[in-house]
What we know:
The structure holds two protein chains of two kinds. By secondary structure, chain A is an all-alpha fold.
Amino acid sequence: MPDRRLLGLAAAALAAAVAFLAIGLKGNIAFVLELRLVKLAALVQVGVAIAISTVIFQTVTGNRILTPSIMGLDALYLFGQMLMVFLLGGVGYVTLDPQMKFGLEVLVLMALASALLLPMLKSRLDMGLMLLAGVVFGVLFRSLHSLLARLIDPNEFSVVQSASFANFNAVRTDLLVFAAIVTVIAAVIAWRARHVLDIISLGPDTATGLGVGWAGTVTGLLLLVSALVAVSTALVGPVAFFGLLVAALAERIVDTRRHGVLLPAAALAGIVVLVGGQTLFQHALGNATALGVVIEFVGGLVFLLLLVLGSRK
Amino acid sequence: MIRIENVSFKHRTTPILTDVSLTIPKGGVVALIGPNGAGKSSLLSLVARLQPLQTGAIDIDGLPVDSTPGRELARVIAILRQDTTVASRLKVRELVGFGRFPHGRGRLTAADHAIIDAAIARFDLADLADRFIETLSGGQRQRALVAMAFAQGTDYLLLDEPLNNLDMYYARELMRSLRSIADGKGKTVVIVLHDINQASAHADRIVAMKGGRIVADGTPTEILTPETLEAVFGFNMRVETIEGKPFVLHQL
Protein backbone atom coordinates (compact mmCIF):
# COMPACT_ATOMS: atom_id res chain seq x y z
CA MET A 1 0.00 0.00 0.00
CA PRO A 2 1.50 3.33 -0.99
CA ASP A 3 -0.33 5.06 1.85
CA ARG A 4 1.29 2.93 4.51
CA ARG A 5 4.67 3.51 2.90
CA LEU A 6 3.99 7.22 2.91
CA LEU A 7 3.18 7.07 6.62
CA GLY A 8 6.42 5.17 7.19
CA LEU A 9 8.35 7.85 5.37
CA ALA A 10 6.60 10.56 7.36
CA ALA A 11 7.49 8.78 10.60
CA ALA A 12 11.12 8.49 9.50
CA ALA A 13 11.21 12.18 8.61
CA LEU A 14 9.74 13.09 11.99
CA ALA A 15 12.23 10.85 13.78
CA ALA A 16 15.10 12.45 11.91
CA ALA A 17 13.86 15.91 12.85
CA VAL A 18 13.47 15.01 16.52
CA ALA A 19 16.91 13.40 16.58
CA PHE A 20 18.40 16.46 14.95
CA LEU A 21 16.90 18.69 17.62
CA ALA A 22 17.35 16.52 20.67
CA ILE A 23 20.62 14.59 20.44
CA GLY A 24 23.41 16.03 22.56
CA LEU A 25 21.29 18.89 23.85
CA LYS A 26 23.19 20.62 26.64
CA GLY A 27 24.25 24.04 27.89
CA ASN A 28 21.88 26.91 27.23
CA ILE A 29 19.03 24.75 25.99
CA ALA A 30 16.82 27.58 24.75
CA PHE A 31 19.67 29.07 22.74
CA VAL A 32 20.83 25.78 21.24
CA LEU A 33 17.28 24.75 20.42
CA GLU A 34 16.58 27.98 18.65
CA LEU A 35 19.76 27.64 16.63
CA ARG A 36 18.89 24.08 15.72
CA LEU A 37 15.28 24.90 14.86
CA VAL A 38 16.38 27.53 12.39
CA LYS A 39 18.82 25.11 10.80
CA LEU A 40 16.24 22.35 10.73
CA ALA A 41 13.79 24.63 8.97
CA ALA A 42 16.41 25.40 6.34
CA LEU A 43 17.32 21.75 5.79
CA VAL A 44 13.67 20.72 5.50
CA GLN A 45 13.12 23.45 2.97
CA VAL A 46 16.11 22.47 0.89
CA GLY A 47 15.12 18.80 0.97
CA VAL A 48 11.55 19.57 -0.08
CA ALA A 49 12.54 22.12 -2.72
CA ILE A 50 15.07 19.85 -4.41
CA ALA A 51 12.84 16.76 -4.22
CA ILE A 52 9.78 18.46 -5.71
CA SER A 53 11.70 20.31 -8.38
CA THR A 54 13.43 17.09 -9.45
CA VAL A 55 10.21 15.08 -9.68
CA ILE A 56 8.48 17.81 -11.71
CA PHE A 57 11.48 18.25 -13.95
CA GLN A 58 11.67 14.52 -14.63
CA THR A 59 7.99 14.40 -15.46
CA VAL A 60 8.17 17.36 -17.81
CA THR A 61 11.22 16.03 -19.65
CA GLY A 62 9.80 12.50 -19.62
CA ASN A 63 13.07 11.26 -18.28
CA ARG A 64 14.16 9.64 -15.04
CA ILE A 65 17.82 10.60 -15.26
CA LEU A 66 17.59 14.33 -15.76
CA THR A 67 17.47 16.69 -12.82
CA PRO A 68 17.52 20.48 -12.77
CA SER A 69 21.09 20.46 -11.53
CA ILE A 70 22.29 17.99 -14.15
CA MET A 71 20.82 20.37 -16.71
CA GLY A 72 22.97 23.11 -15.20
CA LEU A 73 20.18 25.14 -13.56
CA ASP A 74 22.07 25.72 -10.33
CA ALA A 75 25.19 26.68 -12.28
CA LEU A 76 22.94 29.13 -14.08
CA TYR A 77 21.82 30.52 -10.73
CA LEU A 78 25.41 31.01 -9.55
CA PHE A 79 26.26 32.64 -12.85
CA GLY A 80 23.35 35.03 -12.40
CA GLN A 81 24.61 35.84 -8.93
CA MET A 82 28.12 36.50 -10.20
CA LEU A 83 26.73 38.62 -13.01
CA MET A 84 24.97 40.80 -10.46
CA VAL A 85 28.16 41.26 -8.46
CA PHE A 86 29.94 42.12 -11.68
CA LEU A 87 27.36 44.66 -12.71
CA LEU A 88 26.63 46.19 -9.31
CA GLY A 89 30.08 45.85 -7.76
CA GLY A 90 30.79 44.06 -4.47
CA VAL A 91 29.67 46.96 -2.33
CA GLY A 92 26.51 47.52 -4.29
CA TYR A 93 25.75 43.81 -4.10
CA VAL A 94 26.31 43.58 -0.36
CA THR A 95 24.31 46.69 0.39
CA LEU A 96 21.31 45.35 -1.50
CA ASP A 97 18.59 44.10 0.76
CA PRO A 98 19.22 40.31 0.88
CA GLN A 99 15.56 39.44 0.35
CA MET A 100 15.16 41.79 -2.55
CA LYS A 101 18.41 40.46 -3.97
CA PHE A 102 17.17 36.93 -3.63
CA GLY A 103 13.86 37.82 -5.22
CA LEU A 104 15.75 39.37 -8.10
CA GLU A 105 17.92 36.27 -8.46
CA VAL A 106 14.87 34.02 -8.53
CA LEU A 107 13.32 36.10 -11.29
CA VAL A 108 16.55 36.14 -13.30
CA LEU A 109 16.85 32.38 -13.02
CA MET A 110 13.22 31.83 -14.02
CA ALA A 111 13.68 33.98 -17.11
CA LEU A 112 17.01 32.42 -18.14
CA ALA A 113 15.85 28.87 -17.49
CA SER A 114 12.70 29.18 -19.54
CA ALA A 115 14.58 30.92 -22.34
CA LEU A 116 16.97 27.96 -22.43
CA LEU A 117 14.79 24.96 -21.74
CA LEU A 118 11.60 25.76 -23.64
CA PRO A 119 13.16 25.62 -27.11
CA MET A 120 14.80 22.33 -26.16
CA LEU A 121 11.50 20.86 -25.02
CA LYS A 122 9.68 22.17 -28.06
CA SER A 123 12.03 20.45 -30.45
CA ARG A 124 11.62 17.26 -28.37
CA LEU A 125 15.25 16.31 -28.09
CA ASP A 126 15.84 12.74 -27.07
CA MET A 127 17.39 11.93 -23.75
CA GLY A 128 20.97 11.57 -24.94
CA LEU A 129 20.90 14.99 -26.55
CA MET A 130 19.20 16.61 -23.55
CA LEU A 131 21.81 15.14 -21.23
CA LEU A 132 24.61 16.28 -23.48
CA ALA A 133 23.12 19.74 -23.81
CA GLY A 134 22.72 19.90 -20.03
CA VAL A 135 26.33 18.97 -19.40
CA VAL A 136 27.48 21.51 -21.97
CA PHE A 137 25.28 24.22 -20.44
CA GLY A 138 26.56 23.35 -16.98
CA VAL A 139 30.16 23.67 -18.11
CA LEU A 140 29.37 26.83 -20.02
CA PHE A 141 27.82 28.56 -17.04
CA ARG A 142 30.51 27.39 -14.66
CA SER A 143 33.14 28.69 -17.09
CA LEU A 144 31.35 32.01 -17.51
CA HIS A 145 31.11 32.11 -13.76
CA SER A 146 34.84 31.68 -13.32
CA LEU A 147 35.55 34.09 -16.16
CA LEU A 148 33.58 36.76 -14.36
CA ALA A 149 35.30 35.74 -11.13
CA ARG A 150 38.62 36.58 -12.76
CA LEU A 151 37.36 39.89 -14.03
CA ILE A 152 36.12 41.22 -10.74
CA ASP A 153 38.00 42.59 -7.79
CA PRO A 154 39.30 39.91 -5.34
CA ASN A 155 37.35 41.56 -2.55
CA GLU A 156 34.20 41.29 -4.57
CA PHE A 157 35.02 37.70 -5.40
CA SER A 158 35.03 36.76 -1.74
CA VAL A 159 31.43 37.97 -1.57
CA VAL A 160 30.22 35.28 -3.95
CA GLN A 161 32.82 32.62 -3.32
CA SER A 162 31.15 31.24 -0.22
CA ALA A 163 27.95 30.68 -2.17
CA SER A 164 29.57 28.46 -4.80
CA PHE A 165 29.88 25.23 -2.82
CA ALA A 166 27.25 23.07 -1.21
CA ASN A 167 27.46 23.48 2.52
CA PHE A 168 24.85 22.07 4.83
CA ASN A 169 26.63 23.39 7.92
CA ALA A 170 26.59 27.04 6.98
CA VAL A 171 23.04 27.61 5.87
CA ARG A 172 22.04 31.10 4.79
CA THR A 173 19.52 31.73 7.52
CA ASP A 174 18.93 35.36 6.60
CA LEU A 175 16.94 34.25 3.56
CA LEU A 176 14.98 31.66 5.46
CA VAL A 177 11.63 33.40 5.77
CA PHE A 178 11.53 34.58 2.19
CA ALA A 179 12.69 31.19 0.90
CA ALA A 180 10.09 29.48 3.07
CA ILE A 181 7.35 31.52 1.47
CA VAL A 182 8.56 30.58 -2.02
CA THR A 183 8.88 26.91 -1.08
CA VAL A 184 5.46 26.67 0.52
CA ILE A 185 3.74 28.41 -2.39
CA ALA A 186 5.58 26.21 -4.89
CA ALA A 187 4.75 23.07 -2.93
CA VAL A 188 1.06 23.99 -2.83
CA ILE A 189 1.03 24.67 -6.57
CA ALA A 190 2.79 21.36 -7.23
CA TRP A 191 0.31 19.50 -5.04
CA ARG A 192 -2.66 21.08 -6.77
CA ALA A 193 -1.14 20.21 -10.14
CA ARG A 194 -0.60 16.56 -9.20
CA HIS A 195 -3.26 15.23 -11.57
CA VAL A 196 -2.07 17.47 -14.38
CA LEU A 197 1.46 16.18 -13.77
CA ASP A 198 0.17 12.62 -14.18
CA ILE A 199 -1.22 13.60 -17.57
CA ILE A 200 1.94 15.50 -18.57
CA SER A 201 3.96 12.35 -17.92
CA LEU A 202 2.09 10.70 -20.82
CA GLY A 203 3.83 13.01 -23.29
CA PRO A 204 2.73 16.02 -25.36
CA ASP A 205 0.37 14.26 -27.77
CA THR A 206 -1.59 12.27 -25.24
CA ALA A 207 -1.70 15.25 -22.86
CA THR A 208 -3.09 17.50 -25.59
CA GLY A 209 -5.61 14.81 -26.49
CA LEU A 210 -6.75 14.78 -22.87
CA GLY A 211 -7.21 18.54 -22.89
CA VAL A 212 -4.03 19.70 -21.13
CA GLY A 213 -2.39 22.54 -23.05
CA TRP A 214 1.16 21.28 -23.31
CA ALA A 215 3.18 24.43 -23.94
CA GLY A 216 1.47 26.57 -21.33
CA THR A 217 1.48 23.92 -18.62
CA VAL A 218 5.11 22.98 -19.19
CA THR A 219 6.20 26.61 -19.12
CA GLY A 220 4.44 27.10 -15.81
CA LEU A 221 6.00 23.96 -14.37
CA LEU A 222 9.49 24.97 -15.49
CA LEU A 223 9.07 28.36 -13.83
CA LEU A 224 8.08 26.52 -10.67
CA VAL A 225 11.17 24.32 -10.92
CA SER A 226 13.40 27.37 -11.43
CA ALA A 227 12.00 29.05 -8.33
CA LEU A 228 12.62 25.92 -6.25
CA VAL A 229 16.16 25.50 -7.59
CA ALA A 230 16.86 29.12 -6.73
CA VAL A 231 15.66 28.55 -3.18
CA SER A 232 17.82 25.50 -2.55
CA THR A 233 20.90 26.92 -4.27
CA ALA A 234 20.58 30.17 -2.39
CA LEU A 235 20.31 28.39 0.95
CA VAL A 236 23.03 25.74 0.69
CA GLY A 237 24.71 26.05 -2.70
CA PRO A 238 24.66 23.70 -5.69
CA VAL A 239 24.03 19.99 -5.16
CA ALA A 240 24.25 17.89 -8.29
CA PHE A 241 22.87 14.47 -7.48
CA PHE A 242 20.79 14.91 -4.35
CA GLY A 243 17.54 15.35 -6.28
CA LEU A 244 18.19 12.31 -8.39
CA LEU A 245 18.96 10.23 -5.30
CA VAL A 246 15.79 11.34 -3.51
CA ALA A 247 13.48 10.96 -6.51
CA ALA A 248 14.81 7.49 -7.30
CA LEU A 249 14.54 6.50 -3.64
CA ALA A 250 10.96 7.75 -3.34
CA GLU A 251 9.86 6.04 -6.51
CA ARG A 252 11.41 2.79 -5.34
CA ILE A 253 9.64 3.05 -1.98
CA VAL A 254 6.12 3.93 -3.10
CA ASP A 255 6.41 2.05 -6.42
CA THR A 256 4.25 4.37 -8.47
CA ARG A 257 4.62 7.39 -10.68
CA ARG A 258 1.29 8.89 -9.56
CA HIS A 259 2.20 12.35 -8.38
CA GLY A 260 -0.39 12.36 -5.62
CA VAL A 261 1.82 9.80 -3.89
CA LEU A 262 5.20 10.44 -5.44
CA LEU A 263 5.44 14.17 -4.64
CA PRO A 264 4.91 13.82 -0.88
CA ALA A 265 7.08 10.70 -0.85
CA ALA A 266 9.96 12.51 -2.54
CA ALA A 267 9.63 15.51 -0.24
CA LEU A 268 9.67 13.24 2.83
CA ALA A 269 12.60 11.24 1.48
CA GLY A 270 14.43 14.51 0.94
CA ILE A 271 13.89 15.46 4.57
CA VAL A 272 14.95 12.03 5.82
CA VAL A 273 18.18 11.99 3.83
CA LEU A 274 19.15 15.56 4.55
CA VAL A 275 18.13 15.94 8.21
CA GLY A 276 18.95 12.33 9.11
CA GLY A 277 22.28 12.53 7.33
CA GLN A 278 23.18 15.80 8.98
CA THR A 279 22.32 14.41 12.42
CA LEU A 280 24.43 11.35 11.75
CA PHE A 281 27.39 13.40 10.63
CA GLN A 282 27.22 15.88 13.47
CA HIS A 283 26.91 13.39 16.27
CA ALA A 284 27.93 9.90 15.24
CA LEU A 285 30.83 10.81 12.98
CA GLY A 286 31.84 14.02 14.67
CA ASN A 287 31.73 16.07 11.48
CA ALA A 288 34.55 13.93 10.06
CA THR A 289 33.36 14.52 6.51
CA ALA A 290 30.90 16.85 4.89
CA LEU A 291 27.39 15.53 4.22
CA GLY A 292 27.42 17.25 0.84
CA VAL A 293 30.32 15.11 -0.34
CA VAL A 294 28.70 11.85 0.74
CA ILE A 295 25.32 12.73 -0.78
CA GLU A 296 26.98 13.63 -4.05
CA PHE A 297 28.94 10.39 -3.97
CA VAL A 298 25.89 8.18 -3.34
CA GLY A 299 23.75 10.24 -5.73
CA GLY A 300 26.42 9.95 -8.39
CA LEU A 301 26.40 6.17 -7.98
CA VAL A 302 22.61 6.15 -8.37
CA PHE A 303 22.98 8.28 -11.49
CA LEU A 304 25.45 5.81 -13.02
CA LEU A 305 23.23 2.90 -12.03
CA LEU A 306 20.15 4.45 -13.65
CA LEU A 307 22.17 5.25 -16.75
CA VAL A 308 23.42 1.67 -17.05
CA LEU A 309 20.01 0.14 -16.31
CA GLY A 310 18.30 2.60 -18.65
CA SER A 311 20.62 1.87 -21.53
CA ARG A 312 19.93 -1.84 -21.21
CA LYS A 313 16.20 -1.44 -21.84
CA MET B 1 -19.95 15.91 -37.67
CA ILE B 2 -16.30 16.50 -38.48
CA ARG B 3 -15.83 19.11 -41.18
CA ILE B 4 -12.42 19.45 -42.83
CA GLU B 5 -12.24 22.30 -45.33
CA ASN B 6 -9.39 23.04 -47.70
CA VAL B 7 -6.72 21.94 -45.28
CA SER B 8 -3.12 22.11 -46.45
CA PHE B 9 -0.17 21.30 -44.25
CA LYS B 10 3.55 21.69 -44.75
CA HIS B 11 6.42 20.30 -42.74
CA ARG B 12 9.00 23.07 -43.26
CA THR B 13 8.82 23.25 -47.06
CA THR B 14 7.62 19.70 -47.75
CA PRO B 15 3.91 19.59 -48.47
CA ILE B 16 2.24 16.85 -46.41
CA LEU B 17 -1.42 17.61 -47.13
CA THR B 18 -2.73 19.54 -50.12
CA ASP B 19 -6.21 21.03 -50.12
CA VAL B 20 -7.97 18.24 -48.24
CA SER B 21 -11.71 18.57 -47.72
CA LEU B 22 -13.73 15.87 -46.02
CA THR B 23 -16.97 15.66 -44.12
CA ILE B 24 -17.54 12.83 -41.67
CA PRO B 25 -21.12 12.66 -40.39
CA LYS B 26 -21.86 11.46 -36.88
CA GLY B 27 -22.00 7.72 -36.32
CA GLY B 28 -20.21 4.89 -38.07
CA VAL B 29 -16.72 3.62 -38.76
CA VAL B 30 -14.59 5.44 -41.32
CA ALA B 31 -11.34 3.80 -42.42
CA LEU B 32 -8.45 5.89 -43.75
CA ILE B 33 -6.23 3.88 -46.07
CA GLY B 34 -3.30 4.73 -48.27
CA PRO B 35 0.40 4.07 -48.76
CA ASN B 36 3.07 5.19 -46.27
CA GLY B 37 3.53 8.93 -46.29
CA ALA B 38 0.08 9.62 -47.72
CA GLY B 39 -0.69 12.08 -44.90
CA LYS B 40 -3.19 9.96 -42.96
CA SER B 41 -1.56 10.46 -39.57
CA SER B 42 -1.04 14.17 -40.21
CA LEU B 43 -4.71 14.57 -41.05
CA LEU B 44 -5.71 12.83 -37.81
CA SER B 45 -3.36 14.93 -35.69
CA LEU B 46 -4.69 18.11 -37.28
CA VAL B 47 -8.26 17.08 -36.52
CA ALA B 48 -7.26 16.31 -32.95
CA ARG B 49 -5.39 19.68 -32.70
CA LEU B 50 -2.10 17.93 -31.87
CA GLN B 51 -0.51 20.10 -34.55
CA PRO B 52 -1.47 23.69 -35.29
CA LEU B 53 -3.60 24.25 -38.35
CA GLN B 54 -1.74 26.12 -41.10
CA THR B 55 -4.39 26.73 -43.74
CA GLY B 56 -8.00 25.68 -44.00
CA ALA B 57 -10.51 25.00 -41.26
CA ILE B 58 -11.57 22.00 -39.18
CA ASP B 59 -14.52 21.86 -36.86
CA ILE B 60 -16.09 19.10 -34.83
CA ASP B 61 -19.80 19.45 -34.03
CA GLY B 62 -19.40 23.14 -34.83
CA LEU B 63 -16.37 23.61 -32.54
CA PRO B 64 -13.39 24.95 -34.50
CA VAL B 65 -10.36 22.92 -33.38
CA ASP B 66 -7.94 25.84 -33.46
CA SER B 67 -9.91 28.15 -31.17
CA THR B 68 -11.93 25.88 -28.88
CA PRO B 69 -10.37 25.39 -25.41
CA GLY B 70 -8.48 22.10 -25.21
CA ARG B 71 -10.51 20.96 -22.22
CA GLU B 72 -13.77 21.32 -24.08
CA LEU B 73 -12.50 19.49 -27.16
CA ALA B 74 -11.17 16.66 -25.00
CA ARG B 75 -14.75 15.86 -24.04
CA VAL B 76 -15.77 15.64 -27.70
CA ILE B 77 -12.88 13.91 -29.41
CA ALA B 78 -10.26 11.39 -28.31
CA ILE B 79 -7.17 10.36 -30.24
CA LEU B 80 -4.74 7.51 -30.00
CA ARG B 81 -1.59 8.05 -32.02
CA GLN B 82 0.69 5.31 -33.17
CA ASP B 83 3.83 4.70 -31.10
CA THR B 84 2.37 6.26 -27.98
CA THR B 85 4.91 5.81 -25.21
CA VAL B 86 3.82 5.51 -21.62
CA ALA B 87 5.69 6.52 -18.50
CA SER B 88 6.69 3.53 -16.42
CA ARG B 89 5.43 2.56 -12.96
CA LEU B 90 1.82 3.01 -14.01
CA LYS B 91 -0.80 0.33 -13.71
CA VAL B 92 -3.24 -0.49 -16.50
CA ARG B 93 -6.16 0.67 -14.37
CA GLU B 94 -4.44 4.00 -13.65
CA LEU B 95 -3.70 4.51 -17.34
CA VAL B 96 -7.29 3.79 -18.37
CA GLY B 97 -8.39 6.13 -15.56
CA PHE B 98 -6.41 8.98 -17.14
CA GLY B 99 -8.97 8.85 -19.94
CA ARG B 100 -11.46 10.39 -17.47
CA PHE B 101 -9.21 13.41 -16.87
CA PRO B 102 -11.13 15.82 -19.14
CA HIS B 103 -14.29 15.22 -17.10
CA GLY B 104 -13.12 15.58 -13.50
CA ARG B 105 -9.58 17.00 -13.76
CA GLY B 106 -8.25 13.88 -12.06
CA ARG B 107 -10.89 13.38 -9.39
CA LEU B 108 -12.62 10.06 -10.07
CA THR B 109 -16.25 9.68 -9.08
CA ALA B 110 -18.16 6.41 -8.76
CA ALA B 111 -19.50 6.98 -12.29
CA ASP B 112 -15.93 7.39 -13.56
CA HIS B 113 -14.91 4.12 -11.91
CA ALA B 114 -17.85 2.36 -13.57
CA ILE B 115 -16.76 3.68 -16.97
CA ILE B 116 -13.16 2.63 -16.33
CA ASP B 117 -14.28 -0.87 -15.34
CA ALA B 118 -16.44 -1.08 -18.45
CA ALA B 119 -13.51 -0.05 -20.66
CA ILE B 120 -11.27 -2.61 -18.97
CA ALA B 121 -13.86 -5.33 -19.52
CA ARG B 122 -14.55 -4.34 -23.12
CA PHE B 123 -10.92 -4.63 -24.14
CA ASP B 124 -10.34 -7.81 -22.19
CA LEU B 125 -7.91 -6.26 -19.72
CA ALA B 126 -9.42 -7.50 -16.46
CA ASP B 127 -6.55 -9.92 -15.79
CA LEU B 128 -4.00 -7.22 -16.51
CA ALA B 129 -5.65 -4.33 -14.67
CA ASP B 130 -3.15 -4.29 -11.80
CA ARG B 131 -0.05 -4.95 -13.88
CA PHE B 132 2.48 -2.23 -14.61
CA ILE B 133 2.34 -1.05 -18.22
CA GLU B 134 6.01 -1.76 -18.84
CA THR B 135 5.51 -5.43 -18.00
CA LEU B 136 2.95 -5.88 -20.80
CA SER B 137 3.57 -7.05 -24.33
CA GLY B 138 3.20 -4.61 -27.21
CA GLY B 139 -0.27 -5.86 -28.07
CA GLN B 140 -1.51 -5.75 -24.49
CA ARG B 141 -0.18 -2.22 -24.10
CA GLN B 142 -1.94 -1.23 -27.33
CA ARG B 143 -5.23 -2.54 -25.95
CA ALA B 144 -4.71 -0.60 -22.72
CA LEU B 145 -4.15 2.59 -24.74
CA VAL B 146 -7.29 1.98 -26.80
CA ALA B 147 -9.19 1.41 -23.55
CA MET B 148 -7.90 4.76 -22.25
CA ALA B 149 -9.10 6.55 -25.39
CA PHE B 150 -12.45 4.76 -25.10
CA ALA B 151 -12.79 5.69 -21.41
CA GLN B 152 -12.56 9.32 -22.44
CA GLY B 153 -16.19 8.77 -23.45
CA THR B 154 -16.13 11.10 -26.45
CA ASP B 155 -18.48 10.99 -29.41
CA TYR B 156 -15.52 10.95 -31.80
CA LEU B 157 -12.65 8.51 -31.58
CA LEU B 158 -9.58 8.84 -33.81
CA LEU B 159 -7.29 5.84 -33.90
CA ASP B 160 -4.00 5.80 -35.78
CA GLU B 161 -3.13 2.25 -36.74
CA PRO B 162 -4.50 0.67 -33.56
CA LEU B 163 -4.05 -2.82 -34.97
CA ASN B 164 -0.27 -2.50 -34.74
CA ASN B 165 1.14 -5.22 -32.51
CA LEU B 166 -2.21 -6.98 -32.20
CA ASP B 167 -2.52 -10.63 -33.11
CA MET B 168 -5.29 -11.81 -35.44
CA TYR B 169 -7.65 -12.56 -32.57
CA TYR B 170 -7.33 -9.19 -30.87
CA ALA B 171 -7.28 -7.30 -34.16
CA ARG B 172 -10.66 -8.78 -34.96
CA GLU B 173 -11.92 -8.23 -31.41
CA LEU B 174 -10.88 -4.59 -31.54
CA MET B 175 -12.58 -4.02 -34.89
CA ARG B 176 -15.73 -5.70 -33.60
CA SER B 177 -15.66 -3.57 -30.46
CA LEU B 178 -15.35 -0.42 -32.54
CA ARG B 179 -18.20 -1.64 -34.74
CA SER B 180 -20.44 -2.20 -31.73
CA ILE B 181 -19.48 1.15 -30.18
CA ALA B 182 -20.47 2.82 -33.44
CA ASP B 183 -23.70 0.87 -33.79
CA GLY B 184 -24.81 0.76 -30.16
CA LYS B 185 -23.70 4.14 -28.90
CA GLY B 186 -23.81 6.15 -32.10
CA LYS B 187 -20.12 7.02 -31.84
CA THR B 188 -17.95 8.02 -34.75
CA VAL B 189 -14.73 6.10 -35.21
CA VAL B 190 -12.08 7.28 -37.66
CA ILE B 191 -9.37 4.70 -37.97
CA VAL B 192 -6.16 4.50 -39.99
CA LEU B 193 -5.77 0.94 -41.25
CA HIS B 194 -3.14 -0.88 -43.24
CA ASP B 195 -5.07 -4.12 -43.30
CA ILE B 196 -7.54 -3.32 -46.09
CA ASN B 197 -9.58 -6.42 -45.41
CA GLN B 198 -10.32 -5.25 -41.86
CA ALA B 199 -11.61 -2.06 -43.42
CA SER B 200 -13.77 -4.05 -45.79
CA ALA B 201 -15.16 -6.26 -43.05
CA HIS B 202 -15.91 -3.59 -40.45
CA ALA B 203 -15.97 -0.08 -41.91
CA ASP B 204 -18.97 1.76 -43.36
CA ARG B 205 -16.83 4.01 -45.46
CA ILE B 206 -13.30 4.01 -46.79
CA VAL B 207 -11.33 7.16 -47.56
CA ALA B 208 -8.19 6.55 -49.58
CA MET B 209 -5.33 9.03 -49.52
CA LYS B 210 -2.23 9.35 -51.61
CA GLY B 211 0.44 12.05 -51.75
CA GLY B 212 -1.41 14.32 -49.33
CA ARG B 213 -4.71 14.24 -51.20
CA ILE B 214 -7.93 12.27 -50.95
CA VAL B 215 -8.09 10.12 -54.06
CA ALA B 216 -11.12 7.93 -53.36
CA ASP B 217 -14.03 8.01 -50.95
CA GLY B 218 -16.92 5.56 -50.73
CA THR B 219 -18.26 2.30 -49.36
CA PRO B 220 -15.93 -0.72 -49.22
CA THR B 221 -17.56 -2.18 -52.35
CA GLU B 222 -16.93 1.04 -54.24
CA ILE B 223 -13.32 1.47 -53.16
CA LEU B 224 -11.98 -2.06 -53.09
CA THR B 225 -11.77 -2.62 -56.81
CA PRO B 226 -8.57 -3.56 -58.64
CA GLU B 227 -8.61 -0.23 -60.54
CA THR B 228 -8.98 2.04 -57.50
CA LEU B 229 -6.52 0.01 -55.45
CA GLU B 230 -3.93 0.20 -58.19
CA ALA B 231 -4.44 3.95 -58.41
CA VAL B 232 -3.82 4.25 -54.66
CA PHE B 233 -1.13 1.67 -53.97
CA GLY B 234 0.51 1.40 -57.37
CA PHE B 235 0.17 -2.29 -58.09
CA ASN B 236 -2.48 -4.63 -59.36
CA MET B 237 -4.15 -6.95 -56.85
CA ARG B 238 -6.91 -9.51 -56.99
CA VAL B 239 -10.22 -8.76 -55.31
CA GLU B 240 -12.62 -11.59 -54.43
CA THR B 241 -16.12 -11.22 -53.03
CA ILE B 242 -16.96 -13.35 -50.00
CA GLU B 243 -20.40 -13.06 -48.35
CA GLY B 244 -21.04 -9.92 -50.35
CA LYS B 245 -17.87 -8.15 -49.11
CA PRO B 246 -14.80 -7.49 -51.23
CA PHE B 247 -11.56 -9.03 -49.98
CA VAL B 248 -8.20 -8.10 -51.38
CA LEU B 249 -5.62 -10.79 -52.03
CA HIS B 250 -2.68 -8.38 -52.07
CA GLN B 251 -0.24 -11.06 -50.91
CA LEU B 252 -0.44 -12.92 -54.22
